[in-house]
Amino acid sequence: PPPPPPLFVFFFFICWVAGVFVLTWCFLRVTSCAADDGPGAAGAAAAAGATAPESSAAADGVDIEVKVRLSIAKDLLLAMKDTTTIGEVKRRVQQEDGAITVGRQRVFFCGKQIPDNVAIKAVGLGKMDVLQVLVF
Questions:
Q1: Strands 130-135 and 63-70
Q2: Cα–Cα distance, 21 to 25 (Å, whole number)
Q3: Per residue in 82-104, pLDDT tens?
Q4: Which of 127, 129, 125, 124 shows the shortest CA–CA distance to 41?
Q5: 3-state secondary structure string, 18-87?
Q6: pTM for the whole thing?
Q7: 28-66 confidence digits (pLDDT tens)
Q8: Distance between CA 10 and CA 103 in Å, rounded?
Q9: Taken in order 77, 83, 86, 91, is the CA torsion positive or negative?
């Protein structure tokens, strides 16, 4: 029988497969975040203090579940309205885990920090999206 291939060939193949997987995952994540590009025009208007007229039904908001991933290796699933602001999300995180105060939290979506006065619907969260909370 022929001799087995050198060990470096095996490691090269494993690294190649891992590299393809990582590049594919990064491409899919970037393309899913590129559509909303962080807080959209509505988020920028909210950050600038502008208010848009809303109907009474829209003012109540829609019930959604928001997945929050903390940098301390903990995930939370919070039920709230889509009109909830990021500041209110921070307060809910503090209620769920009393050791994390609002001042120690920074909220990110698609790699961009989200200001406290921006509503969840302005951020453009989808069903499988996650808000990352950096705790320091």
A1: parallel
A2: 6
A3: 899 999 999 999 999 888 999 99
A4: 124
A5: HHHHHHHHHHHHHHHHHCCCCCCHHHHHHHCCCCCCCCHHHHHCCEEEEEEEECCCEEEEEEEECCCEHH
A6: 0.58
A7: 655 556 554 444 444 444 444 444 444 444 457 788 898
A8: 49
A9: negative
Between the CA of residue 9 and those of 14, 16, 57, what are the distances in Å? 9, 10, 63
Give the whole-angstrom CA distance, residue 26 versus residue 72: 23
Residue with token string 């001799």: 3
Question: Six-digit token pair at 29?
Answer: 């994540």
DSSP H/E element including 109: strand 105-109
How many CA atoms does the CB half-sphere of 82 hold within 13 Å? 15
Show the tokens assigned to 67.
């997945």
Pairing of strands 74-81, 105-109: unpaired
Owner of token pair 């920028």: 44
Which residues fall within 8 angstroms of residue 58, CB to CB, at 6 or more apart?
Answer: 83
